[in-house]
Design a protein that fits this description.
The chain has 126 residues and is an alpha+beta fold. 61% of the residues lie in helices and 13% in strands. It has 2 domains: 3-86; 91-126, no CATH class. The protein has a 3-stranded antiparallel beta sheet with strand order 1-2-3, covered by helices on one side. The longest helix has 37 residues, at 50-86. The radius of gyration is 22 Å and the shape is rod-shaped. The structure holds zinc ion (ZN). Zinc ion is lined by residues 90, 92-93, 95, 115, 117-118, 120.
């Protein structure tokens, strides 16, 4: 489901909250993968059997790959949520996140909204 559809269905505040939760879940995953990588570095030893060394290196590579993916997702979700939140302020009365969705915008990544207080309309780009 696209962000436009999600915001129209559950509202901006809940969408924003969910984006931050998803973002920080990726941060937790990043920290866990860092622990996995450090643990692999700690237990690696050249004196152990080659198959065990390969297992430790595979765990380290998997932790690094998961950590890199989690870092990218964390930064993307956080920056995207902030990018949209910066547009959630009414240009006339400056109320934050107090708008109703009018309709979908000209492109699938736009949402036409109307302020609940002053009825000012603007476009939020997602
Ligand atoms: Zn307003």
């Amino acid at each position: 489901m696209s962000p436009v559809q999600t915001i129209r269905r559950i509202g901006f505040r809940k969408w924003y909250e969910r984006e931050l939760l998803r973002s920080h879940a990726n941060l937790v995953l990043l920290l866990l993968s860092a622990i996995g990588l450090l643990t692999a570095a700690e237990i690696y030893d050249r004196r152990i059997a080659l198959s065990d060394q390969l297992q430790v290196l595979a765990c380290a590579a998997a932790s690094a790959a998961i950590g890199l993916h989690a870092l990218r997702r964390y930064l993307y979700l956080l920056n995207h949520a902030e990018f949209v939140a910066d547009q959630a302020v009414c240009g006339r009365c400056e109320r934050y996140a107090s708008f109703d969705s009018v309709d979908e915008g000209a492109t699938p990544a736009e949402l036409n909204v109307c302020c609940r207080h002053c009825r000012h309309e603007w476009v939020i780009r997602l």
